[in-house]
Amino acid sequence: MLELSILGFLAEEPLHGYELKERIKALSGHVRPVSDGALYPAINRLLAGGLLGQRTEEGTSAAPRRVLSLTAKGRQELLARLRDPKQAEITDHVRFNTLLAFLRHLDDPAEQASVLRRRLDFLQTPASFFYRQGEPVRAEEAGDLFREGMLRVTRATGKAERAWLREAIETLGASN
Hints:
The structure is a single chain. By secondary structure, the chain is mainly alpha-helical. The longest helix has 30 residues, at 145-174. α1 (2-12) packs across α4 (72-83) and α1 (2-12) runs parallel beside α6 (93-102). It contains eight helices and five strands. A three-stranded antiparallel sheet has the order 1-3-2. Strands 4-5 form a two-stranded antiparallel sheet.
């Protein structure tokens, strides 16, 4: 998801490394913080792959800064990743939010709706954090105040997300 975040933010505007790190941190850093040890090797891989370009500009009060931008090849890669996300990017909430943050870069509403349908299909499958005899445990059956709370909050947010997904899919269908 780090590479998707880099490509997505640079699709919006050129940024230097610190600005990029701050945007990624704002998107998901509280859940999955990004370190320089992860960010800069990812940037270097994308540069080496021709997905990013870079130029140097004068720093205001410091050394010159490396400004990164998305290349045409990088834009193609971003769009490919948005069109056909990995299953983990659909099922993992934080990863899906990262995907959702950049889904607007797909120009085709049908392609956008297809990604949202995959998430909706996943959310409609009965699941739980806890199982008893192979069956999902419902909040009312948790037998534990804290697990019950966890399950109730998850159920409420899942209900809200499914409602939004249905509305968004309908809206995207209407724009065709």
